[in-house]
Design brief:
Layout lengths: L24 H10 L27 E3 L5 E13 L1 H4 L5 H16 L1 H9 L10 E8 L1 H12 L13 E5 L5 H7 L6 E5 L1 H4 L2 H8 L7 H16 L1 H17 L6 E2 L15 H14 L4 E2 L11 H9 L5 E4 L7 H10 L7 E10 L11 E4 L2 E4 L2 H19 L3 H9 L8 E6 L2 E6 L10 E4 L3 H17 L4 E8 L4 E8 L8 H4 L9 H10 L8 E3 L5 E5 L8 E5 L8 E3 H6 L3 H8 L4 H11 L20 E2 L14 H6 L4 E2 L2 H12 L3 E2 L5 E6 L2 E4 L6 E2 L3 H16 L13 E10 L7 H16 L9 H8 L10 E10 L6 E9 L9 H4 L1 H11 L3 E2 L2 E2 L45
Parallel strand pairs: 1-14
Antiparallel strand pairs: 1-2, 2-8, 2-9, 3-5, 4-5, 6-7, 10-11, 12-13, 14-24, 15-16, 15-29, 17-20, 18-19, 21-22, 23-26, 24-25, 27-28, 28-29, 30-31
């Protein structure tokens, strides 16, 4: 494994540039806050939108399912972006609006252009900018008002349009203390579109269509206001000096053309910085370094003033720009001499999901200040690509790895206006076409995934469930064939990892495996489970001390029964007595070895997203938690612990396959051009012997024929292994419906602007503990089933979990989750299509997709190696049989 904790792949891959693009920040921030809770994002994904000035590269890889069907891909497009601060220092609003209208109006219309153009001022709906950065005293406000009334820089006795002084409601106490102000304070309010207009400057400074008139006008305004703002300037220097002295910065570097001030660092978009670096390298231009003591600002007096008047450094004006108008727009930008620091066309992309909105595929979004794949196959694909590049470099293919990294994105030819020596110099960059993206082949089966989603939808509707989730795994390869979830509230981004549940009886095979492996019990060992359905447990092994009664479900096992029967019939009394034979330390250490209590599938969630491990045993540190009558007994029958879907499925499949713990697989290979890199199967960690594995399977086979799974309908001749789970929630648990609905209300309030503070999920959990919404009980119903089609050796495993179903009587796993799980299992084994039986599984008429192998590389010790794609056939989608 590499340092990311994922297994490498094996030869022919690519790693794309990282792409930083924005969606709506509000919802993503909300989801990041509640991602420790539960539930899926089921709403359609929005097109990628730019909201921050980061370097935006397309996620160049595409994602396909196990049969080559596209699940995710990127579509190239372009956005029109600008730096209002730089642009309005030397350009006229009317001229820029006319240029945009001439280039874009045929498709957009003037109203749409007007809306886009209005963004460039950073103003409110009335077109005003309130300069609250520099609060004014009464005396300073009077002086500024007099200057405006007297014509501003023209001093002609006529009021300067677009400028005004208003009283502020007041400053926060800490702000008053910082600036040393008290009493009434005021601020400048101005309308950039009016104050910078051709009409205003022509009337007040005799500057009409002369070369550089716009720049001279901002110099006049800036130089005059610099003197009027002497008080605010000195207060700001004093306030920031204290910060600087406390945290000195020896390298106060400034990107050319940009204004920087300590305490509120404003930097250009990464796309601008990247272009600037290329140009500086090409022409040997040094980055400007500030040496003087006045570190508050760099540049002219005008720059300091306009930094307050035009604080917006980046804005996306239009995304996307119609492809047919790109050339016309570029010509107009060149005519107006708009440089790359002022307005530019940025190559970006839209992430599309042509096969529909599969939750397991995941999404892109913001994690802190980084934009990228957040979850699911999107993130697993990125991890695989990163791993591939690392391995290519390690085995001496730096040039190929570098080509993959640098050759993924198209670079438009553009006119660069690069400030040097006080002048804007123009340079030309040639076009560089993009290269074909990599293709990440996943293990997911699209049609099976769709069917799984349909059955989960039915479960949520028919059982009025708070959440339903399921997974289908090929037992031998550990490939995840389908993964999905449904819940009515939309409050958990990735439920298979972020929704924790108490597994109940589906955990009993784990307890049994520990006892069998340690020799504490044999399948034929006789256990007395009693006759009443109530088992009395004493605190001490000698039968003394505090007592605890452990109850059974309907149809409970009675009398003296074998250990195998106890598991098959899901006897709580039987499993408690078996579990108590396993020493506490063995119980805790071995369940951790199985993966319980530890984060699962780290490649499915971005760093920063909640991927907790759950817990085994009661929480607390009194030293009494693992007493016989507490955690030791409870965990033995699947209570007092929490797990998630992927964690639980990984452990159960490992026990029922070969006793080796191996991570579930989501990525098969990466293709780029004629090269293909395949994912090697990771080495397993031994959990139990093959003897224990065989005995455990025999018990689950007994459970499917005589025990809790005996009523599950199945095709004739199918050998089925099953374990059901019915967990009645306790006073410390919460009702998923109440919890989800409250979180959904909170999200809606944030979307509506009623609040900007997400709910405290921990406080909400404490508030709702033991509240079942007027019902007597709340349940988690689950089932794990494994089988092969009659006459076939290929085995498939399915785990289904239904949280908080509303049904008559007890929500037994066999009744609530069982029928759906069997339908999904039959679909995975290709015994049904869309839930309907069919007579044959012929693969005739479907092609074989073969890739030419590379020359054999003698690198046996390395984790990556060239390989020929194995021919695959299947009944549909040109792929292998499910």
């Amino acid at each position: 494994m590499n340092r990311r904790g994922i297994e490498p792949i094996a030869d022919s891959g690519v790693r794309p540039f990282y792409m930083f693009v924005g969606l709506g920040l509000a919802l993503v921030a909300i989801l990041a806050q509640v991602s420790v809770l539960q539930a899926a994002e089921t709403t359609p994904r929005s097109p990628i939108r730019a909201t921050l000035g980061n370097y935006k590269e397309a996620p160049r890889y595409s994602i396909v399912d196990a049969h080559g069907v596209e699940l995710a891909l990127s579509v190239r497009r372009h956005a029109l972006e600008a730096s209002p601060f730089n642009m309005w220092l030397r350009h006229t609003p009317e001229r820029i609006f006319e240029a945009l209208t001439a280039a874009l109006a045929p498709e957009l219309g003037e109203e749409a252009i007007e809306r886009a153009f209005a963004k460039s001022f950073g103003a409110d709906a009335a077109g005003e900018v309130r300069v609250e950065r520099w609060p004014l005293t009464h005396t300073e406000a009077l002086a500024l008002s007099d200057w405006i009334a007297n014509g501003g820089p023209a001093e002609n006795g006529r009021t300067l349009p677009g400028f005004d002084v208003v009283r502020l409601k007041g400053l926060a106490p800490e702000r008053e203390a910082e600036l040393g102000l008290s009493g009434a304070v005021f601020c400048l309010v101005w309308k950039p579109r009016v104050g910078l207009s051709l009409t205003t400057r022509a009337a007040f400074a005799d500057l009409e269509e002369k070369k550089g008139a716009a720049s001279r006008w901002t110099h006049l305004i800036g130089n005059r206001l610099y003197r009027l703002f002497e008080g605010p300037r000195l207060r700001e220097i004093a306030a920031n000096r204290a910060v600087f002295d406390a945290e000195p910065d020896p390298e106060r570097r400034v990107v050319p053309g940009y204004f920087t001030r300590r305490g509120d660092l404003q930097r250009p978009p990464e796309t601008v910085r990247a272009v600037a670096r290329r140009v500086r390298a090409l022409f040997g231009v040094e980055e400007q370094v500030k040496h003087d003591d006045d570190w508050i600002f760099t540049g002219s007096r005008r720059d300091w003033v306009m930094d307050g008047l035009l604080p917006l450094r980046y804005v996306s004006l239009l995304d996307p720009v119609d492809a047919g108008r790109i050339e016309a727009l570029r010509e107009r930008l060149a005519e107006e001499e708009l440089g790359v620091f002022e307005m530019w066309l940025q190559a970006t992309s839209e992430r599309r999901y042509p096969s529909g909105q599969l939750a397991a595929v995941g999404r892109w979004g913001w994690i802190g200040d980084r934009y990228g794949p957040q979850e699911g196959l999107e993130h697993a694909a990125r991890c695989a690509l990163d791993s591939l590049e690392e391995n290519l470099v390690r085995r001496g293919e730096e040039e190929f790895a570098r080509t993959l990294q640098e050759g993924t994105a198209e670079r438009l030819s553009m006119q660069l206006m690069f400030p040097q020596g006080g002048k804007a110099r123009s340079y030309y960059l040639d076009d560089t076409p993009d290269t074909a993206p990599a293709t990440v082949e996943t293990t997911l089966d699209l049609e099976l995934s769709r069917y799984l989603g349909e059955r989960l939808d039915q479960l949520v509707e028919e059982k009025t469930a708070g959440l339903a989730m399921g997974i289908v795994v090929d037992v031998e390869t550990r490939e995840v064939l389908a993964l999905d979830w449904r819940e009515p509230y939309g409050v958990v981004p990735f439920a298979p990892l972020q929704h924790f549940f108490t597994p109940g009886s589906t955990f009993k095979p784990v307890t049994m495996s520990l006892a069998l492996e340690l020799g504490k019990v044999r399948p034929e060992t006789v256990i007395d489970v009693g006759e009443t359905g109530q088992f009395l447990l004493r605190e001490n092994e000698d039968g003394t001390g505090r007592s605890r009664w452990i109850g059974e479900a309907e149809g409970f096992l009675r009398g003296r029964r074998t250990a195998a029967e106890c598991l098959a019939h899901s006897s709580n009394a039987g499993l408690v007595q078996i579990g108590l034979r396993v020493p506490v330390e063995e119980f805790r250490s071995r369940t951790a070895l199985y993966g319980y209590g530890l984060p699962a599938a780290p490649d499915l969630l971005a760093e920063g997203m909640a991927n907790l491990g759950g817990h085994v045993g009661e929480r607390g540190d009194t030293g009494r938690e693992w007493m016989r009558t507490r955690s030791h007994a409870s965990v033995s029958f699947g209570d007092s612990l929490t797990t998630n879907l992927l964690q639980h499925a990984t452990a159960l499949v490992s026990l029922l396959d070969d006793g080796q713990l191996r991570p579930l697989r989501f990525v098969r290979a990466i293709r780029h051009g004629e090269r293909r890199f395949t994912m090697r199967e990771p080495a397993g960690t031994p959990l139990v012997s093959m003897q224990t594995r065989g005995e455990l399977r025999a018990m689950l086979r007994l459970g499917a024929t005589e025990g809790t799974g005996s009523k599950l309908e199945r095709p004739e001749g199918m050998v089925l292994y099953s374990k059901t789970g019915t967990t009645e929630k306790l006073a410390g648990d919460v009702c998923q419906h109440l919890f989800g609905s409250r979180l959904a209300e909170d999200l809606e309030a944030i979307r509506a602007g009623e609040t900007d503070e997400p709910a405290d999920s921990n406080a909400l959990h404490r508030e709702l503990r033991g509240n079942w919404g007027g019902r007597e009980s709340c349940y988690v119903s689950s089932i794990a089933v494994l089988a092969a089609a009659p006459g076939d050796d290929r085995e498939v495993f399915c785990l289904l979990v239904v949280d908080d179903p509303h049904v008559e009587g007890r929500a037994f796993g066999s009744r609530v989750a069982g029928p759906a799980a069997m339908d999904i299992l039959c679909e995975a084994l290709d015994l049904t299509r869309g839930g309907e039986p069919h007579a044959t599984r012929s693969t005739a008429g479907f092609g074989v997709d073969v890739f030419e192998p590379e020359a054999v590389l003698e690198r046996a010790a390395l984790p990556w190696a060239s390989s020929e794609r194995a021919p695959v056939t299947g009944p549909y989608n040109g792929g292998a049989s499910r």
